[in-house]
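Please go through the sequence line and token line underneath and see whether the fold suits the sequence. See right below:
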Amino acid sequence: MSTDSATETQRKSDLSFCYFVIDSLPLAIVAVDPDLRITRFNAWAQEITGHSEKQAIGRYCGDVLQGGMCSRDCPLRTVISRQEPIIRIETTIRRRGGNAIPVEMNTAGLFDQSGNLIGAVEAFQDISKKKAQEREKSNLISMFAHDMNSSLTGIHGLGLRLLKTEDLNQEKPRKFIEVLTKEASKLEFLVKDFLEFSRLQTGKLNLTFDATFLDKELYELFSIYEPKAAAMGILLTLESAASLPVIEADANRLRRVFANLLSNALKFSRQGGKVAITVEESDGEVMVTVRDDGIGIDPEELPYIFDIFHRGRDAEKKEGYGVGLAIVKAIVEGHGGRVLVASEPGKGSTFTVFLPKIRKLGEE
């Protein structure tokens, strides 16, 4: 075999191995030759771009991807000319017959065993959801500032008026105080949600475990929420075993969990509906269920309801920021437990919190 034939055989072997790796990775990957013609287009790339492998192979990559950087600072051209990888750039590609898709991309040269450049490769993933969350976060902060300012303005204004009510009858000061109390309560709830959110973002959700009487915590919450439910025309019930075991938990954080679940259940219930809290226990766990017969959750939304900032279509007209259920999940998992949800549109939702009676050694 001639030297040229051996070299060509080795080159094909190198390419074959590269293609095996490309097809195996769970990323959209596009390989090109030194002239930027596509030589490989894996299944993930086909999924994201809408182009089949047959449609892409042999074409100039810029014609297929229509990337936001193709006409300037093309990453593939840059790595081929400089032979240095480009790590984690954010740009866009255009889906076939559709809109631009934001992607996170890594680009590098492909070399044979002799160090000769044989092409380049781009690995990218769709970050549409990440970008949507960033927009939601920005909007959330703006909404939070607006709502906090509105409550503060109302509290301040009514406080000033109360200071000048010497000549008024007793009914107006009483109404002012009722509004002050309502606005202060809303503001307190907002601040608590965002304090928890801040701790979630920084990974500093520290829990303080102690002996906790779960039945006592739930009864106190029931006593607080039952009048609220009655005022909304909703029947709130609590069904529990005569005596629940004492568990190791952060009582204040658990109250936050069940307060969030109860608030959600009432928020999405209809007048004349029912919200039921039930408590059961097994050998190693206590199960607390909050069930409503309200509007329910769309099946397409269920996988995402515990994501931070997620607000389903039915939640858009309700107060809230998509933080509460993410906090519920973080606190429950911090206790070594889990939370499950079952729902059917038009028939209501059931959230079940499973809490271990005794923490395993080594858990914080």
Q: What stands out?
A: The chain has a mean pLDDT of 79. The chain has ten helices and twelve strands.
